């Protein structure tokens, strides 16, 4: 569909320039995808030669330090994850390095050990899985997303400073807690809700916008993509996501937003990074509560995938921590991460997907940095670029 | 005296010093005016010092509950603006604030962040292991040597770090990167910072006398290389966008809570353009919107005023023709014209 045809198609649906999202006979998810230039009727994707059934991958990184003891060895804390693992793959020996939360979590997405400072506000130099896939598979901005609760550092995951990759191949990053919170919602409401544009107003906005000369250095999103994502953000802001509160709400929002992204945009790759587990420094009980809450939300996300014909049997899920935590409690009855114990340096991976074995326990020792090359191969069918990590053959059928 | 300031340079100077575009009144006051006069004015503004403090708090991630109280920030701004303390002194106050201690709790985090953020050390590398261990003990109250100086307290650690030449070099390098998108310092093959002759002279000048810091910024802002850098558009940072959109649409600056909430929200997206569009539209639709007047028969003037005010340039012939005719034909109104400009890709740059 060329640009003018697509515009006519969108105009016919009333979808240009801030159109209402709920249209008769046209689902909200389809509306977003249409705005982003994906015809909802032909949204199927070419099968990957290596993993012929996997079209979407969700990687959930517990980026706040989680031991396997509280997940694999305490099924009551994580019934959903354990159920997913039992019907898919469980790897109980996943090596990791305590490189700080940011560096260790980034390592999962680059396939390299990333030694970053605690408060580092710089991007990494190794291209992320997001950039590699976008560039090598010619994917668009709506195909790769990251939902995070990792604050300002979270958006640094979107892309690296690698000269051949970078911002042009970035993931769309949404930090649910930073964006969909009561304070921001209240602030916007203090100015009043934006009025809905008439068809004529939308047409004029497009005409005036088209007349303006193009500029370099701005967003890489085209006007339709910009409007599609703006509408999604506005919809989430005015919906229930901002009302999720309480301990661990940041992670809960990141998973909920991730699920909504999956449902609305059906990206090829969705990363979800969670950080609230780090409350463990001050409270073991609080940490366990967050594990339980996250397990519940991941269970809902996976259930949503099973209910969606376009996602079921085409979506793989991988869940792993960036590192574990100390063996013993600290003086606050919490758990730090610095004792160099096995509990800190050996975590777990739970995975399930159409191209993965069922009911398998991988007994060999693998690494958190193996995830990126494995997912690259799973989605692209190509050998991944050289990384410190390796493709996990045992994870793939 | 330098020649009159070209419009794009004029706009960039405001955005790089005050983190917002010029108001219509400022434009009337300073155009035409030579660049050195504009820069001299900007570098004396209280608002510039206030924004410098805010930028440093952001650099040290002293945000939200870790941010010092408004009174403390205001007091620091006043003293800097009044010449009663240098950038080095202000940094010391920030590092010794309770917010910094809360943000970086415990000996390991405090000393690590001090070494990383102020001196640019890679603390994880083995060569700094002894320094880190020494700093941790001093933080806990033991006397000892830290970077070849005697120390007993957290304040000693801060003083020793800020007296290092690496701190001066790193501070200047950060600001050089901000203004020129290029480092002041180079790197050798091992990643260690290197200096050329000009950089060495600048670092020495400021290290010997920290009151030279803002004059050095002034030299940079009036340089030919800075003037020529406007040829290439740069993306506005979130803070520049928030301050600009409030200034441009509501004729006021956001208060701290507004800035914090909007900026935090924008920090939540790698590409915040979609959210920027939402915010611009919300402000434009609000009762606070303060837009240029549009009178019948003055459509061309209105369009020119809007382009000047929001984009800092004249409209092209095609833009003028399209905008004016759409107004005259009754299809476009004041709100739609302004919304087109402030939600455009161009408005996201400067």
In brief:
The complex is a heterodimer of chains A (397) and B (350). With 397 residues, chain A is α/β, with parallel strands linked by helices. Chain A is 37% helix and 12% strand.
Characteristics of this structure?
heterodimer; A: 397 residues; alpha/beta; nine-stranded mixed β-sheet; 14 helices; 9 strands; 12% strand; B: 350 residues; mainly alpha; two-stranded antiparallel sheet; two-stranded antiparallel ribbon; 20 helices
Architecture overview:
The complex is a heterodimer of chains A (397) and B (350). Chain A is α/β, with parallel strands linked by helices and 397 residues long. Helices cover 37% and strands 12% of the residues of chain A. Chain A contains 14 helices and nine strands. Chain A has helices at residues 3-13, 28-35, 79-87, 100-110, 129-136, 151-154, 176-179, 182-190, 199-211, 223-238, 249-265, 284-307, 342-345, 371-380, and strands spanning 56-62, 89-95, 144-148, 172-175, 269-274, 315-321, 346-352, 360-361, 366-367. In chain A, helix 6 (151-154) links the parallel strand 3 and strand 4 (172-175). In chain A, helix 2 packs antiparallel against helix 10 (223-238), helix 5 (129-136) packs parallel to helix 14 (371-380) and helix 11 (249-265) runs parallel beside helix 12. Chain A starts with a helix and ends in a 17-residue tail after the last helix. Chain B has 350 residues and is mainly α. Helices cover 61% and strands 3% of the residues of chain B. Chain B contains 20 helices and four strands. Chain B has helices at residues 7-17, 24-30, 35-42, 46-59, 70-81, 87-95, 98-103, 107-119, 129-139, 154-162, 165-180, 197-208, 213-221, 224-229, 238-250, 256-267, 273-285, 299-311, 317-328, 334-342, and strands spanning 144-146, 149-151, 186-187, 193-194. In chain B, the strands form two sheets. Chain B has a two-stranded antiparallel sheet with strand order 1-2. In chain B, strands 3-4 form a two-stranded antiparallel ribbon. Chain B starts with 6 loop residues before the first helix and ends in an 8-residue tail after the last helix. The model of chain B has no long low-confidence stretch (mean pLDDT 92). Classes of the chains: A alpha/beta (397), B mainly alpha (350). At the A-B interface, helix 6, strand 4, helix 7, helix 8 and helix 9 of A face helix 8, helix 16, helix 17, helix 19 and helix 20 of B.
